[in-house]
Amino acid sequence: MDKTDYKKIYMELYLPGRSPVLVNVPPIPFIMIDGQGNPNDADGEYAQAVSLLYALSYAIKMNKTGDHVPEGYFEYVIPPLEGLWSFRGTKEAFSGDKSEFMWTSMMRQPDFVTPSVFSQACSAVQSKKGLDTSKARLCTWEEGLCVQCMHLGPYDDEPATLQKIYDFLNSSGLLSDISSKRRHHELYLSDPRRAAPERMKTVLRLPVREASKQSDAL
């Protein structure tokens, strides 16, 4: 039986080219964890959040072998890690100090993942791995109108790809709509522990609005 692979089914969301494109992102269920600080700290809050996301996602995936298989369960490939990013306080530009990052680390979940399924996964992870799951939440998030582009290379080289996105906005009658509700979004298609830095693939996604429309975000 073929496994559902969201990257292949929704290629327009997960596998854009290296030129910016406009997308309308539908409502998607995620497990999310909020945090702050430098994502490169080996034992920091971000690393712990990522470990918890994978633990919960695999616990849900392995429900097929338990006594309580979720209604509507199907075989699937665990989707890639994603993240929303902003800066502490009211800063609009990155100062270079990664401790200023405010982030939401998240992973897409299949539609059969209900609050009950999520709660069971939390209980399993707590009892088997001793992890605190209190910061994790299950929610459906509708991102809406965005412009995205594939970034190839190290994370620190992302500004060049972001500039391509802003150039696209300027020529397309679109404005960046980043706010406390709509944030810079990254989808990580490569494992930094295994991929060479120059071969890393990251989708950069920016929330936008038409220049003629007022932003309703705060």
Automatic annotation (TrEMBL):
Pfam families: GyrI-like (PF06445)
Domain (GyrI-like small molecule binding): residue spans on this chain: 20-209
InterPro entries in UniProt: GyrI-like, GyrI-like_CCH_Lin2189-like, Reg_factor_effector_dom_sf
Protein origin, superkingdom: Bacteria
SUPFAM superfamilies: Probable bacterial effector-binding domain
Protein name as annotated: GyrI-like domain-containing protein
